[in-house]
């Protein structure tokens, strides 16, 4: 009777060890996958950070209000050009930062006259052709503005005289990124509007913009399917390889567990087989 109880205890201990080893190997095997998924949501700065960061930061929404009061007469196209310069140029200068979107609001004599919006997916897709370097000039935007319109990289909404009243508050958010945007506007003579406010808010929805930008870039090379064309090919090869490895590994572990007479070794091979199936 005692031998039976001891054998049962030994079997339970061996089973517990086998499951513990299986779980441990599973966790270790998932670490590279988790790191890959985490890195897909990181900015360039976070990827190169040391020590490494596991949790990606939330992209920031930069909201700038430019005041054109006191300036000479300007046409709609002049405001649009100024809004694009106020968006693309400082963003390029801070390209490694985790910027999710930039919103520019133009005001004149206390009224809103336009709003411009650019998402990070559009910026990353258009950056190589719109602002390939940090050499910023008015002539550069004269050439690139038609491309921005054609590819719909930025959205410009014109209110003109029909815009609503706006508050007269002023100030720059107390953050490093907002300060960098303010420094650019203050030191550059390209942007005509004067900074009234710069706000910074979290933009959770921009966490997925890296995937959208990859799809936009791929559409230029692969047609309407875009990133899907490359993803399907890779998915078929990867899933087929994983399925074959799981099948062969499970069969090998099952066969060895039944061929070896030693029960302890058999349980160990059985646990390895379970791990391969996971």
From TrEMBL:
Domain of life per record: Bacteria
Gene Ontology cellular-component annotations: plasma membrane
Transmembrane feature ranges: 16-37
UniProt key word Transmembrane: yes
Keyword field: Cell membrane, Membrane, Transmembrane, Transmembrane helix, Transport
InterPro entries, A to Z: BP-dep_ABC_trans_perm, MetI-like_sf
Places the protein is found: Cell membrane
Membrane topology: Multi-pass membrane protein
Principal subcellular localisation of the protein: membrane
Name of the protein in its database record: Carbohydrate ABC transporter permease
Higher taxonomy: Bacteria, Bacillati, Bacillota, Bacilli, Bacillales
């Amino acid at each position: 009777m005692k031998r039976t109880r001891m054998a049962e205890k030994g079997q339970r201990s061996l089973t517990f060890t086998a499951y513990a080893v299986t779980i441990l190997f599973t966790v270790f095997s998932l670490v590279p996958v988790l790191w890959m998924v985490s890195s897909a949501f990181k900015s360039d700065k976070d990827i190169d950070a040391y020590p490494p960061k596991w949790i990606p930061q939330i992209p920031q929404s930069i909201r700038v209000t430019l005041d054109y009061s006191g300036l000479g007469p300007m046409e709609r196209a002049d405001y649009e050009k100024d809004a694009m310069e106020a968006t693309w140029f400082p963003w390029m200068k801070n390209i490694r930062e985790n910027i999710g979107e930039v919103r520019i609001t133009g005001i004149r004599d206390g009224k809103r006259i336009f709003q411009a919006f650019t998402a990070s997916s559009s910026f990353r897709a258009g950056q190589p052709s719109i602002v390939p370097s940090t050499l910023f000039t008015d002539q550069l935007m004269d050439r690139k503005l038609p491309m921005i319109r054609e590819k719909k990289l930025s959205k410009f909404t014109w209110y003109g005289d029909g815009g609503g009243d706006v508050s007269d508050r002023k100030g720059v958010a107390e953050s490093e990124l907002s300060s960098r945007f303010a420094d650019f506007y203050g030191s550059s003579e390209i942007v005509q509007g004067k900074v009234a406010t710069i706000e910074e808010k979290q933009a959770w929805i921009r966490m997925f913009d890296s995937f959208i930008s990859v799809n936009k870039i791929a559409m230029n090379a692969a047609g309407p399917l875009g990133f899907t064309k490359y993803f399907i090919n890779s998915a078929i090869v990867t899933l087929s390889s994983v399925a074959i490895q799981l099948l062969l590994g499970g069969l090998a572990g099952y066969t060895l567990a039944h061929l070896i007479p030693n029960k302890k070794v058999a349980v160990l091979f059985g646990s390895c087989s379970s791990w391969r199936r996971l």
